[in-house]
């Protein structure tokens, strides 16, 4: 298969992919508002065994509530004393926009958010059928409204206290750690009443669907890679492994599953919130659609623990971990089994994961992801050098056969079958294989899509600068320099290696428009991906030129 057909197939696949993703965004299924109320929905999905239903995340008893701020070196959390829920989580090392001279300190990403349009909270509580228990609506008390992890301090405890006239006391303790995105939760239950306390602990993530983004132009809209990442719930169990639950599936396919050693999460591009129960605890994972009357539907995924029985005068603890941070595979592997699977490369995982690993190792050496991409190109070209040479050699031989092929076409006229038979006999006689060098194509297509997913879903490449005008390798080139450079490389390749014999007129016409087609396609792709293909195109052009010079030298020597 010659190089021009390789480019043609590549372009058609790329265009088909763009059309498919755009169709999914515009016409694919979207969440619909539930027809049930929050009480009935959660009563049907929220109970584990005989545990009572878990109520909605908004509303509840009236009374003043406080917001408690907890700051570490990587997180800034806001805890609402109503329910003791974490209602805001800011990732201090991940700004919303790249740092520039005009804005050297942009606001950090807010993962959890208590705004009505982008609501996302990490809630927890206790439920009991016949005893007092603080759910995520109960009013807690905090000793102070601000906590900061100071220099030299590795961990910080934040206690919220709830008491009941019956003698039940609950202390909800959050523990944060230096350099960590893991928050430990410990609900300490003291039974000071005169009867046994029976209940369940639960943890849930409640969020609204993402608001529709506002774009100023079509290019900005289609080049926004965050539109194509999965946004919704996920869960993991050792038996069922990693599962995603899109918001439009909540009402149709509600989750209700017993799990030991798993986790529940809400996913989005680059970042993750996940509740992780103790590994040996038998929980029930469930989902629910909460009908907020004025704010619209919200989606809950929760983990309800086993029944806890506490005799009078005794106490017990219910613990869990909450991960609020970037989707860093090495970090998440150490937090919980399978949590790294939330870096979701889909069907191209087999290609994307090795590419990510190689780029990560190269980045350790270079300190620049753009330079790492260039080195990746060179490594791949070295690995495929022999096969690419075979492709160019076959193309050169076929080019030399062009006069004889043209003569065959004149001899047989419109009889295409005879033309093809005669061409195959000629190829066999001259020991030319038209399919030689197909391996570069087999490698090129998976690398293209694998690297695309790495650039789209790997948080390490988010806002990763290269040099000059490229401040974010995961975003489109703002000045279209790289797409133009690749177009120039393609034009030079066409000039150096003319259209191969045997290509029908329709294909020849399409090849003339290939550079323009690629220029348009690469306008929307991450600049890191276009950088890869600019360097790869230059490498192939140099190799192609070297092969032609070598072939000409060999021909001149043979005639001398």
Automatic annotation (TrEMBL):
Glycoprotein keyword on record: no
Compartment(s) where it occurs, according to its Swiss-Prot or TrEMBL record: Cell inner membrane; Cell membrane
Biological-process GO terms, alphabetical: protein insertion into membrane; protein transport
Lineage top rank: taxon: Bacteria
UniProt keyword Magnesium present: no
Residue span, Membrane insertase YidC N-terminal domain: 68-358
UniProt topology in membrane: Multi-pass membrane protein
GO molecular function, one term: membrane insertase activity
UniProt keywords, alphabetically: Cell membrane, Chaperone, Membrane, Protein transport, Transmembrane, Transmembrane helix, Transport
Residue ranges of the region described as Disordered: 31-65
Primary residence: membrane
Pfam families recorded: 60KD_IMP (PF02096), YidC_periplas (PF14849)
PANTHER family tied to this protein: CYTOCHROME C OXIDASE ASSEMBLY PROTEIN COX18, MITOCHONDRIAL, OXA1
Subunit-structure text: Interacts with the Sec translocase complex via SecD. Specifically interacts with transmembrane segments of nascent integral membrane proteins during membrane integration.
UniProt family annotation: Belongs to the OXA1/ALB3/YidC family. Type 1 subfamily.
Function: Required for the insertion and/or proper folding and/or complex formation of integral membrane proteins into the membrane. Involved in integration of membrane proteins that insert both dependently and independently of the Sec translocase complex, as well as at least some lipoproteins. Aids folding of multispanning membrane proteins.
Protein name according to UniProt: Membrane protein insertase YidC
Organism: Dyella monticola
Gene that this sequence comes from: yidC
